[in-house]
Amino acid sequence: GLLQAEAQIYYESGDMEGYKKTIQSILDKGSKDPNLYFNLGVTSAQSGQNDEAMQYYKKTVELDPKYANAYYNMGIVQLAGEDVIVKEMNGLGTSKKEMARYDELKKKRDDIYKAALVNVKKAYDLEPEREEFRTLLSNLYMGLEMMDEAKALKK
């Protein structure tokens, strides 16, 4: 009712703090609407609060285990910071020291990919027709050198 209308006004005016507070009061009144938790996850992620976003997405899938977008967004949040690692990897030369650093960074990147893969795969399994799910899953498989899995997605 009224609180949701208020939340919508905050959202449309770009006041994410007001939006989050209003949604939180709806949830405090006992709402179990997974969409509200999902929206809080989105607004938290947009403002760079990734840990908070993950908590909201986890609550979303706890309430609705088939909420594919929440799994996908968890994967996206888990990939945050990956670009910095890849950029450093790409900037390294071929000295022994740089090769060792490359291996270290690759392991770090692979661990990030493996964590994200679990959630992105779940999203894809729930909604295989979603192109963005397939694309990200394929990129993760290729990044992890899981070529058979990547090829299977192309079909």
Outline:
With 155 residues, the chain is mostly helical.
Give your account of this protein's structure.
- The chain has 9 helices and no strands.
- With 155 residues, it is mostly helical.
- Helix 5 (68-78) runs antiparallel to helix 7.
- The radius of gyration is 19 Å and the shape is elongated.
- The mean pLDDT is 93.
**Can you tell me the overall shape?**
elongated
* CA gyration radius, whole angstroms: 19 Å
Which residue ranges are poorly predicted, with pLDDT under 50 across at least 5 consecutive positions?
Answer: none
Question: Helix share of residues?
Answer: over 70%
- Strand fraction band? under 5%
Task: Give a short account of the largest sheet.
Answer: none
- How far apart, in Å, are the first and last alpha carbons? 46 Å
Mean pLDDT level: 93
Q: Which class best fits the helix and strand makeup? A: mainly alpha
- Tally of contiguous helical segments: 9
The helix-strand sequence is HHHHHHHHH
Number of strands: 0
